[in-house]
Every structure is written in C-alpha cells, then in structure tokens.
Amino acid sequence: MTVTAVPAQHGPDAVAEQLGDVTGFVLEAPGWPTLYFSGDNSETAVVARVARRFPDVEIALVCAGAARVARLDDALLTLDAARTLEVAGLWPAATVVPIHVDDWAHFSQPRHDLREAVRDAPGRDRIVLLEKGASTRLPRASAALLHA
Predict the structure, then answer these.
(1) How far is CA 42 from CA 45, 47, 65, 79, in A?
(2) In degrees rounded to 5, what are phi and psi of residue 70?
(3) The domain containing residue 21 runs over which residues?
(4) In a domain, 56, yes or no
(5) What is the pLDDT of residues 9-19, one digit of tens each?
(6) Mind listing the pLDDT tens digit for each residue in 93-128?
(7) CA dihedral defined by 97, 137, 145, 111, rounded to 10 degrees?
(8) What is the distance of C-alpha 22 from the center of its chain?
(9) Who contacts 58 (Cβ-Cβ below 8 Å, separation ≥6)?
(10) Residue 106 to residue 101: CA distance in whole angstroms
C-alpha cells in the first residue's frame, strides 16, 4: 500500500495562516479502490489539484459539516454541501462520503442539513452519509473492498 500526503487548506486564504497546516491523504494498493481523505479542507481548488494528480480515486472521505467559528469571521473551515458536490464532480465515478459533520458546535451544516442540501442535486446518488455506529456498504467501491 502507498500512502501519499496531499495538500489541504483549513479555511480560505484570509484565515488559513491562523489555523496552521493540515494534510489530506491518498491511499493506493493493487486490487483495492484508491481512497482520498480530505483532512480538514474547505477549498475545492486544493482538491482539484489532488484530483489532477490522482484521477482514479474511487472513494473520497471528505470532512464536511460547514465548520465555522466567529473569531475567524465565520469563514468556511470544512466543506459545505455545495462544495461536497463540487468534489464529487472532480471524480465523477467516485463514491463521496462526508465525514466529521456532527458533534461540534462549530458545524453550521450538520448531518440532517447536509442530507437535505444534496437531496435533489445531481450526483446525490454517489454521496453516502454514514449513520453513526452503522456499517455501510459503498455502492461503487470495487469488489475487492466489498468482499474483504
């Protein structure tokens, strides 16, 4: 297995320096789907650079929930639903799994809101919102993953 650290940016340029560096990851292994983990990234331009380098991502775990904090002028610190759909567009065949969407007061678009926001959107069939504590079979993942 190969694990590659890839760029991530926790907020727009105006606040990114105040938050420090964050990192995403791409995992690749023969016979397994390529997996992207966004890290606490809010910037789709950063994900687009990753997508150009790793066009065969089949599963994208993206930190969503539209995290915001007042001390940073409510800047978007993780993906919101619209940006989650943009990420899905970067890998048209990938299953996109929004994670890290609940449990903190700074999430402005928690699970229910995220679900409603993507309900009628193109590409919604590739967005899988996990339920806490439940195992979920991903619909587009390779057979190797599903039968491991």
Answers:
(1) 9, 9, 10, 5
(2) -60, -40
(3) 2-130
(4) yes
(5) 988 888 877 88
(6) 999 999 988 877 888 888 888 888 888 888 788 899
(7) 20
(8) 14
(9) 33, 34, 35, 91, 93, 94, 95, 140, 141, 142
(10) 10
Q: Are 47 and 89 in contact (CB under 8 A)?
A: no
Distance of CA 97 to the CA centre of its chain: 6
The verdict on residue 45 lying in a domain is: yes
The number of distinct structural domains making up the chain is: 1
How far apart CA 136 and CA 83 sit, in angstroms, is 23
SS3 10: coil
Q: Which two tokens stand for residue 103?
A: 């449990």
Pair of tokens at residue 75: 């800047």
Contacting residues for 57 by C-beta, under 8 A, at least 6 apart:
26, 34, 35, 36, 51, 91, 94
Structure tokens at 71: 């001390």
Q: At 49, which amino acid appears?
A: R
Residue 138 located in a structural domain = no
- CATH number, domain with residue 24: 3.60.15.10
Express each pLDDT in 17-65 by its tens digit. 788 889 999 999 999 999 999 999 999 999 999 999 999 999 999 999 9
